[in-house]
Amino acid sequence: MKNYRVKGFISVLLCFVMIIGLSASVKVKAEEDKKIVALSAEYTGVKDESGDVLVGTPLKTGDFKFQIRYDGEKQFVPLPDSELSHIKLSPNAVPIDEKSGFELTVTYDNKEKTKTGKDLVKKIIIPKTNEYFDKMEASWNGASRYYVGDEIKKGEITLSVVYWKITPQGNRQVTRTITQNRFEITPSSITADGPNNITVEYRGRKTNVIVRGSGPKELEVTYSGDQNIVVGSLVDTKKIKANIVYTNNEKKTVKNTDLIFENLEVKAPGPHIVTVKHGNLTGSLTVNGIPKAVEKISAKYTGLDLVVGSRIDPSKITVEITYNDKSKEKITTGFTISPETVSQVGANTITVTYQGYSDTVIIKGTEVLPTSITATYNGGTVIEGQTLNKSSILVTAYYPDGKNKTVSDFDLSVETMNKVGMQEVVVKYKNLTSTIYVPVTAKMVTQLEAVYNGGALEQFESLDRKKLIVTATYNDGSSANVDDYTITTTTATQVGDNKFMVTYGAKTATFIVEAFARRITGMGSLTAEVSSDDYSSTLTAYIQDQVVREGIKLETEDIEYDAIKSAIKRVNNGSTKKYIAFELDVDSFQFDENRYMTAELTVPDEFDPAKVAVYFTPDRKKAMIQQTGGLVANNLYRFYIYSSGSYVIMENKNNDISLQELRDNEQRKPFMVVSIDRSLPVKTKSKIKPYVLFSSHKDEEFTYEVDNEDLMTISKTGEMQTKAAGTVTVTVNAKKSGLTESYEVKIKNLAK
Fold first, then answer.
1. What CATH fold (topology level) applies to the domain 36-129?
2. CATH architecture of the region 675-747
3. C-beta of residue 722 within 8 angstroms of C-beta of residue 680
4. Each residue's pLDDT tens digit, 446-492
């Protein structure tokens, strides 16, 4: 039975071995059937510290890590050792040249295992170098003197590295100096007096250099405070200074915060030693202990002013004692005062003494107060509103000792007399009062004067009351301008002198204002609007010696530039766009030499009024007849119409405003016309030309102002000089005529 069991076990075992062998052979067969589709290679041989391979180094397959990837798989796997014989390297040694790398071609030539049936080729770049390390040297230039604990300056250490350089022509040595930021030193500071062995490390390599240090000798301590210190006080550490004295007698100051102090409190009179430490160095200083004593006193009086002869209360005096340790103490007893009474009116100096030390306080002495006063008024009648003269009041003060005196430093309950009749006035002195009565008479106007500063008016124009100054003179000799006057009328009803009368305080005053004929507006006038492409104006016409009757109509029609440009060019010797041309017709009105129309046109703001004129053209081409007329206001041009037809208002550069005349003899108020450029570029000069028409002054004087001199300046002769872009207001004044005109001028940068 046992043999059968053994035989059975052997049979089972053989079957199991056969199954495993069959399984292994199947697996090997499966591996052999895989095809290689990719190859990778990595150099793992000898490299320097920078990862470079030295030129001339032989290249062997054992210096590489090869991996392959089978078809259908994502991961690379190591190349079997059995396949290394199919790896070919080209070149087979690192080339000797100056380049920093070279290209290595790796070929796998077992075509039976590649998917393509061809060689697999992989090219890689391997960094290389033609230098290898020989030795490293360091030296110290001795530029600085170091003491124990001082930081070593790396810039004083020179590190040189020697390399061998391999070239096709042979090998040679190369020496390089390494900058201080590329190497490290240990230790970094001086640790001993004398030679210090310093390790210099660069790229893992080390060398040594000797740096000499000087050691300390002792700790020198000084004290700048008061040598006499009160017992119980501490020595002031801020006044303790310490220096390290080295072997060569040089010194180095130690920060106060780096010092350790012992025995700072002075405990007894006499010499006292303070110990000062820094590291392993120890020094000391000696001060003198003294007993606590009074150094000075300060006295202060806290009471009230005292009447002369009064006794001083010592409890109202506080004494502050300052001791020699600078501590302080306040006392209210134990001191003496001298003198003990107030002897005079005003400041009294009192001496306070304590333990031989003195101070003074000031106590104000006041006079003895009176028990009563009397007041008598000796002046005359006062006008309402006047101030009472105190010299006309006699005030007498009576004292407890029976004496009396006249005083002048009294006060009054009221000083301005404003109640007609008997004015009650209370006199006050030293909190005592007495009453007087002052006769007061009413304030009356004795004279009235009226002056009008508004200049001449047009007929039917009203006065500007703001320009009427009415001055009243009173019975107290004073005078003042008044506003609550009455005036009979404010309208100038006639051409020539108009007399006006004002009344105030039962007094009257008269003044004369000249009036000129009224302008042609309102009743008897015809109006129409005329315009060009860019400008517009209002035309007002008045038929001389005849009120406009129903049925007479003023009709106008604007004329295009092309229809009138020939006539315009004949006037200006060139074209102008500053014009307004219109056809005028008056229906049901017959012109003749005695029947004509007076007309006015408003001048557009864009026109220069000093250059404006009005023309009549019968053919709109060759003939241009300047009409009699001229400016009658800064923006109003008057002319005369003798027939219907074509009219043009325009700028004429040859026009002379100073020669203009009006046909009628109507008087006009003076007015000013200013020729000024309203728009100028930066850094440009332009002259202002002002005129005053209908002025009685032959030689008018003009002044000029500008509100922003950072943008523009104006000379005394009216020349504008622009400086920067912006908008300014220019004001022109005619001094003799009292006329003013203001204009806005825009300053622009030149286009680039």
1. Immunoglobulin-like (2.60.40)
2. Sandwich (2.60)
3. yes
4. 999 999 988 888 767 788 889 999 999 998 888 999 999 999 898 88
Closest C-alpha to 745, from 669, 661, 688: 688
Of 696, 698, 678, residue with least CA distance to 686: 678
Residue 242 near residue 276 (C-beta atoms within 8 A): yes
Mean residue pLDDT across the chain: 86
**Letter for the amino acid at 322?**
T
**What CATH number does the domain located at 519-664 have?**
2.60.220
Q: What is the CATH number of domain 445-516?
A: 2.60.40
DSSP string for 53-106? EETT-B--GGGEEEEEEETT--S-EEPPGGGGGGEEEESSB---SS-SEEEEEE
- CA end-to-end distance (rounded Å), the chain: 125
- The CATH number of domain 372-441, selected from 2.40.10, 3.40.50, 3.90.190, 2.60.40: 2.60.40
3-state DSSP helix/strand/coil % of the chain, to nearest 5: 10, 50, 35
What pTM was estimated for this model as a whole? Answer: 0.32
* Strand partners of residue 383: 441
CATH code assigned to 294-366: 2.60.40.3630
509 and 482 Cβ atoms separated by less than 8 Å: no
Residues, the chain = 752
The answer to whether residues 556 and 580 touch, using CB atoms and an 8 Å cutoff, is no
